[in-house]
Design brief:
2 copies of one chain form a homodimer.
Chain A lengths: L3 H27 L5 E2 L11 H12 L14 H15 L8 E4 L1 H13 L5 E6 L4 H8 L3 E6 L8 H7 L4 E7 L11 H12 L6 E5 L21 E6 L12 E5 L6 H14 L7 H9 L7 H17 L12 E5 L5 H9 L3 E2 L1 E2 L8 E5 L4 H5 L2 H11 L1
Parallel strand pairs in A: 1-10, 3-4, 3-5, 5-6, 6-7
Antiparallel strand pairs in A: 2-8, 7-8, 9-12, 11-12
Chain lengths: 386, 386
């Protein structure tokens, strides 16, 4: 007697669950060291010691409150985050424009709840993080898919063509999951200029939890390039704490109706059931905001994995950030190729899950050995595919 | 450019915000000790020492994971909660039927997302917790309001009359916010028997964060009395940690399509953006599940407050649980009376906010002195109202 929507969801979700179940079964059967799980972006790198110290400090503070707080979060935490966000965005952002959230997923959901009327359209760039579709539909919006260019960059012309009178927002994700692409300042400026010409304001929601995981490149500040912009992000990836559900939203002070959007997002935080971001974790991250995971750890894994796959004849573009490889499937049918990989105890996600057939995604936020020891399996799979 | 729905919400919310702002202003002006804030159910009683110890233990455990986990929560935590829930519900509940959530608000939202088709109706009992309306509307449902009986009990006949072919669920809340009523076993059995006769399954969602805050009374187990039942609850009130957003949902194993509802709720946890209940706090509460706040602390406050108000001529029913008094307004217009109280530096919530005109709510989860020192203000207000 579940709803029709969830009935369908459960069928879709059961495909992913089947993969996880297959993985768990393989691990039980062959031992975890003989299964090469590149399926989820769950960092194996532990949180930095400053995080652990901050956690101990907050946990031992007998005077700390675990009570309700303003739905936007502790003011002092918002203020600390606003200072950091102002640097990142090269724009003065007052604490009042920052809302602490239950991760980036919470941040995107409250932004969409604040903005969308039923049937409003939200543009996403393909390949895209598969959850966007559900987040948009949670608030009765419609997802409009625009293909990225051949090198996974934003195709400004294609985006412009997809805009209708119903378009309310665009979600971008840079560094990108699954492609690892970082949109350049030039690209973002072109996007902003094109959007500025539209008759109605179209808000760019920039989902950027991988901002601090880049390889010799700085993610450009979006706020100076386009005023109707919102950052939705989390500490999940750069602090390796995705289970703690802590992130934030910031609305560009120059955005049209900025104060209204902030207020609506705060109320959305309350009425969607988040209420407020977890109290304790707000205080912990505020104490160690500058202490991110060293990107070089992931750089080493990236280079190791790219070389391993290239040597075997896989076609793989080198990611500029995040910790995913989006690899061309040696055969058109990416699902079938992932089955071939599975037969080698390798877990990968088909491109279809990101709306992009003919590719598969590998998460390399795992041990180096998992990458190294997967070589024979990747070799066997590509040979079988030929 | 926020959505029409949120635009309206912001106007409604601004009334509540105005009250809070008025309160903050009064506190700044007269000193917090001269303002009597009975507006929010934010416990002033600190968490028990076992909670603080469990928190320190988990925070110091260097091996603990802050990573992603199954969307339903850590299996071991679900199992511990299931054991406790089985006792409370006098029904064996497997760990698989328990989902860890971001508080009771998260639990209710995932249950509604799992169940509701657009336009499905959810019955709530008036006076009701004002957020229910938003939770139902988040998932495109419609709230149907049924009045409670004169003594704030369930009016089974009235509920039966309100049932239509679209009725999918009923939310009950016992001990009740705002009335403090605890529904008896007899009442719940009668509710179950009436629902059992309906052609379509109607799920009872029992919101019970105050279960362990009662005064010489045990909240009856619902599961043995009606099979299509779901518990949605949290540790916010009985552990005094509402800011930490940790709770759980349990589906009666005897419920029609129980496994489907559990699965849909787990997926809803993911797609609504909660992802999973905060990782660290799951482990903390599992370590101190039996260590609740002593209800006698609130019993003393209740008796103090009831006597104080009765002596002044207020008409107040004695709550059996939770920490609210729902007091008859000496004048019909409860909003006007709350203004009179505000003029005495007393913050109360008008009954209108719970759908019930002619009453006001006082939260007594505050210091004893706040209650004692409010006497003159309550005296002046009732005299002015005459």
């Amino acid at each position: 007697m579940v709803s029709n929507y969830m009935q369908n969801m459960m069928q879709e979700a059961s495909l992913i669950r089947k993969m996880f179940e297959a993985g768990a079964k393989l691990k039980a059967q062959y031992g975890p060291e003989n299964v090469f799980d590149f399926s989820i972006g769950n960092p194996s790198v532990p949180p930095v010691k400053e995080f652990k110290n901050a956690l101990k400090t907050v946990a031992s503070d007998s005077g700390i409150s675990h009570g309700y707080m303003p739905n936007a979060g502790e003011y002092s935490v918002r203020n600390t985050v606003a200072t950091k966000a102002s640097e990142e965005q090269k724009t003065p952002i007052p604490a009042e424009n920052v809302v602490m959230t239950c991760g980036a997923a919470g941040a995107i959901n409250i932004a969409l709840k604040a903005l969308l009327n039923p049937q409003d359209e939200v543009i996403v760039i393909c390949p895209y993080f598969m959850e966007y579709k559900f987040y948009i539909e949670n608030h009765q919006g419609k997802m409009a898919v625009v293909q990225s260019s051949a090198d996974f960059d934003l195709d400004i012309e294609a985006i412009e063509k997809a805009i209708t009178t119903k378009t309310k927002a665009i979600i971008i994700n840079s560094p990108n999951n699954p492609t690892g692409k970082v949109y350049s300042e030039q690209t973002l400026r072109a996007l902003g200029q094109m959007l500025e010409k539209q008759p109605n304001p179209i808000y760019v929601i920039s989902d950027e939890p991988y901002r601090h995981i880049t390889y010799g490149i700085v993610v450009p500040a979006l706020f100076p390039l386009y005023r109707n912009s919102i950052i939705a992000t989390s500490f999940s990836k750069d602090m390796s704490i995705p289970g703690e559900r802590i992130g934030w939203l910031a609305v560009n002070p120059q955005a049209e109706k900025a104060a209204e959007i902030v207020n609506a997002s705060i109320i959305a935080n309350r009425i969607l059931g988040f209420t407020n971001a977890p109290a304790l974790m707000q205080k912990v991250v505020a104490l160690c905001l500058d202490n991110k995971i060293d990107s070089n750890i992931y750089l080493r894994k990236r280079d190791l994995f790219v070389k391993l796959l290239s040597d075997l004849g896989y076609e793989v573009s080198v990611p500029e950030g995040a910790f995913y490889l989006f690899v061309k499937s040696p055969i058109e049918d990416d699902k079938a190729f992932c089955e071939l990989l599975l037969a080698q105890n390798i877990l990968a996600v088909p491109g279809k899950s990101f709306g992009k057939i003919g590719y598969f995604r590998l998460a390399y936020c795992c041990d180096d050995d998992t990458i190294k020891n997967s070589k024979q399996g990747f070799k066997n799979a590509i040979e079988k595919a030929k």
